[in-house]
Task: structure prediction
Amino acid sequence: MVKENVSCKSGCSACCHTQVSITSDEASLLVKQIVSGAEVDLRRLRLLADTGNNAEEFYKLSYEDRACPFLGAGDTCTVYENRPSVCRTNHVVSEPVLCETRDGQEQAVRLLNTHRADMIMMAFFKNSKENGALPKMLWKALKRLEKTNSNAVVNKL
Ligand code: SF4
Result:
């Protein structure tokens, strides 16, 4: 029943071109995925990390460069099984066209009501050491790893 009314479908990556927030713990988990071989676009990661948490700067980038560094071939998520909490809980019930941000503008979309999950996530974010835009948080976590490790991934940074 829920699945039938949700607009999100495989191959749609509209929300992966918006600013996704994660916690420092999630950034550390994503770094582990990279070290274990998950595909990440380091060029895009670096470009996106430079925009920090600033949505205005983020939306100045081209649509292609705004793609999440984990968005891989066929518009699929390379860390799907271990994707951040925000990517798991946002389910759109309005028309998919409203999710489009090719013109650099976000439009109001209707999300599935997930009060309980939202409350857990709010507590999770509130109690995190730090949180912010995925590229910025991931870049910081990779840089921390760089200081302690000579891993092949880190050497590419
Ligand atoms: S982690 Fe995966 S699902 Fe989340 S924004 Fe990036 S590509 Fe999309």
About this structure: The radius of gyration is 16 Å. Residues 16, 20, 68, 70-71, 77, 79, 83-84, 87 surround iron/sulfur cluster (CB under 6 Å).
